[in-house]
Amino acid sequence: MLARTPLYNRHVALGARMVPFAGYEMPVQYEGVKQEHLAVRSAAGLFDVSHMGELELVGPEAGAVIDGLITNDASKLVDGRALYTCACNERGTILDDLIVYRLRADRWLVVCNASNRSKIAPHFQAAAAGRCAIEDASDRTALLALQGPKALEIAGRVGGASLVELKSFGLAELVLAGVHALVARTGYTGEDGVEIFCASNDVVALWDALLDAGRDLGLVPAGLAARDTLRLEARLSLYGNDIDETTNPLEAGLGWTVKLDKPGFLGKNALVAQKAAGLARKLVGLEMVGRGIARHGYPLLDATGASIGTCTSGSPSPTLGTNIGLGYVAVGHDAVGTKLLVDCRGKSIEAVVVPTPFYKRPT
Length: 363
Prior knowledge:
globular, about 20% helix, Gyrase A, domain 2, alpha+beta
């Protein structure tokens, strides 16, 4: 039996096509992927991401517990700040990618991918045992992502006017449309915007209020398919595609989240050894030259047809009008401008390694 978020009936009423995703019945699209994608780039989109996992850690040692499990340095955070990080196993490969929020020195929030909640929750609970209180708050917590250049203006109409002063990866406790919420200036689209946590029984009212407030500004509900094309253009990794327990953060282009100078954390020794030995492969951006779409799992070949890697993500780019992708290639084939072939179901289609992110929002 698939789970449903509290907004399931709203999605159905809006005509969403519902699909199974990470154990939930989720909206993949409403009016259409391209329309929703371009609305986020030009105005705003509202996503239901209440399937994500939320762990709350409370106590004087909560920050230290988290820091022992992540690659980034949580000790550098001050109240009201967040960071992106990986959590690795002893081999230095990625259990999940997370956002860690420090509300206070003794109150923290860790957000994990829905597909990994069943392993990340016990992983953190084991580390917290005897040191701090921890609760898997996922089932009582809803999460909305309001993304796009008009997102902050829309949030301001329902009580979030102060968000314009909030820096990227900052967070604040606010009342939006009468709903008590934790609002973070984070997202997964490459656009400005916020992610809004609230109690599950309050999210329907907040969803309705935001859609009403933003309708004249072009706000649309957006589904998982647009979320995927948006994050790909921004070169944001998708767990299960671009990163997993067979990949490490260094080869995945996430070395900036790995602080090898901080005290010991799970996976540090393996990552130190990997860095010293040098990388065998790297995750690169691809743009198709020939007619074809690079898809997850498609082999990547050199000019002679020899295997040099594998595509991890790919789709048409609604913003750029080209077909783009990500893939791991052997070092030596990773330089920008390198030509290669994508084996698209038996057809070798030309592609080229390009800089990433593919898209950056205007400044």
